[in-house]
């Protein structure tokens, strides 16, 4: 793989428990280590849109910084759904998931993912925004999806790659992979720029 050859002298650390993000890294042909540390994902209320996942991606890098070696590249990431001028995080209950999906039904929302690259010498954060348009979902469709797929680990209470995305999303503007959880082209481009 092209990028793996370029990165042969570097050690990639992915600080994410997301199976979707891990699969993207495998699909890119990257050799990487998964390193997890618990972070309280709280952000200042004044933050707006992309500032929120930027802040959280950088926050997730903090507990790892002290242990970084010279050839390490740490990658942290965060995704939010921005709808009606507020951030939708991960739902904490079935009722909250249903309410989130009902609010997005028949409207457009933005999925914003930020990725932070940290080395001993620098920290660089990039982000990407994708616009997602939902059809008017019925109560039965929302209930079925939440009951069968339990999307409690997903911002905005849905996964575009799941049933709800297949039947409910009319169109998107921007990167599909970003909605799944990682703007892969931005990661590829940024890794290349860091080692050139």
Residue fraction in strands: 25-35%
Per DSSP E runs of 2 or more residues, the count of β-strands stands at 7
What is the chain-wise order of helices and strands?
HEHEHEEHEEHHEHH
Secondary-structure-derived class: alpha/beta
**Unreliable residue stretches:** none
What's the assembly state of these chains?
single chain
Please give the count of helices. Answer: 8
The Cα radius of gyration reads 17 Å
Instruction: Provide the residue-averaged pLDDT.
Output: 94
What share of residues is helical? 25-40%
Distance between the amino and carboxyl termini: 16 Å
The major pleated sheet works out as: 7 strands, mixed
Specify the overall morphology. elongated
Q: What does this molecule look like?
A:
The protein is α/β, with parallel strands linked by helices and 196 residues long. The chain contains eight helices and seven strands. It has helices at 2-6, 19-27, 51-65, 94-104, 139-149, 163-168, 176-180, 184-195, and strands at 11-14, 32-34, 72-83, 86-88, 108-118, 123-134, 169-173. β3 and β4 (86-88) form a beta hairpin. The longest helix is centred in the N-terminal third of the chain and has 15 residues, at 51-65. The two termini are 16 Å apart.
């Amino acid at each position: 793989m092209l990028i793996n050859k370029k990165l042969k002298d570097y050690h990639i650390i992915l600080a994410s428990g997301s199976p979707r993000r891990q699969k993207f890294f495998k699909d890119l042909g990257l050799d990487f280590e998964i390193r997890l540390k618990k972070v309280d994902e709280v952000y200042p209320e004044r933050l707006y849109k992309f500032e929120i996942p930027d802040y959280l991606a950088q926050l997730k890098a903090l507990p790892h910084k002290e242990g970084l070696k010279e050839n390490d590249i740490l990658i942290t990431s965060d995704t939010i759904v921005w709808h009606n001028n507020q951030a939708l995080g991960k739902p904490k209950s079935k009722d909250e998931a249903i309410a989130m999906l009902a609010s997005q039904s028949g409207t457009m929302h933005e999925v914003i993912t930020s990725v932070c690259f940290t080395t001993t010498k620098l920290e660089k954060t990039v982000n990407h925004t994708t616009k997602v348009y939902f059809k008017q979902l019925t109560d039965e469709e929302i209930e079925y999806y939440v009951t069968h797929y339990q999307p409690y680990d997903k911002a905005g209470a849905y996964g575009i790659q799941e049933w709800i995305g297949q039947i409910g999303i009319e169109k998107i503007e921007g990167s599909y992979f970003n909605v799944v959880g990682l703007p892969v082209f931005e990661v590829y481009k940024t890794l290349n720029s860091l080692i050139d």
